[in-house]
Amino acid sequence: MEPILSHLSFQIKENAIDSFMDEIKTPVTDPVFFSVGLPNKKLIPKKQLQAMTNMLFENDPSNLYNYCSSKGYDPFISTISAKETIAENFIMVTNGNTQGFDLVCRMLLNQKDSFAMEAYTYSIAHSAIHQYNLNAIEIPLQQDGMDMDVLEASIKKVPIKALYIIPNAQNPTGITISLEKEKIN
Q1: ∠ CA 5-161-8, rounded to 5°
Q2: Distance (Å, rounded) from C-alpha 181 to C-alpha 70?
Q3: pLDDT tens digits for 94-149?
Q4: What DSSP character marks residue 72?
Q5: For the purposes of burial, counting CB atoms within 10 Å of the CB of 121, is it exposed (0-12), middle (13-18) or buried (19 or more)?
Q6: How far apart are CA 54 and CA 62, in angstroms?
Q7: Do residues 168 and 124 make contact, with C-beta atoms less than 8 angstroms apart?
Q8: Contact 128, 155 (CB under 8 A)
Q9: Distances 91 to 40, 97, 107, 124 between C-alpha atoms, Å
Q10: Phi, psi at residue 119, to the nearest 5°?
Q11: Phi, psi at 160, each rounded to 5°
Q12: Which of 83, 128, 142, 144 has its Cα between 20 and 30 A from that of 26?
């Protein structure tokens, strides 16, 4: 019988965090379980989430059952656009970092393309290196974010097509990028 899975599917490698998540059986008791970014269920604002869900069902019930645009739910995108003063055409809502990272890899990067990422970083970046056959350039972190001198030197050596950073409460270090580094072009 012919295999039904694609060649790409055989390149996917499970990382240690994925394996760990499959094994975890006990509820998280710490405020946030930083090794995998799993919140304590007691910290989730259940009543507020329920109220927002109820409001959506009351205010726009017909649209809740339809497909939205591929960029996400339009009222949500409009809210983000207004609050963050970013044009709507620059906003795409995903189910989280993993889906967003995967979409960027599929849409912007070709095999052997280089991208820079923080050392250390969220495990999905390491999975993508193997899955999409990419060249990852690891940039060390400092107390206030990525080491910009190393990044600049790396860009001069290798054409970097994308930069992957977690600017706020970086996982796994917890570092937040400084305003000074955030403003560097």
Answers
A1: 5
A2: 32
A3: 888 888 888 888 888 999 999 999 998 887 788 888 888 999 999 999 999 999 99
A4: B
A5: buried
A6: 14
A7: no
A8: no
A9: 29, 14, 15, 21
A10: -115, 105
A11: -100, 125
A12: 128
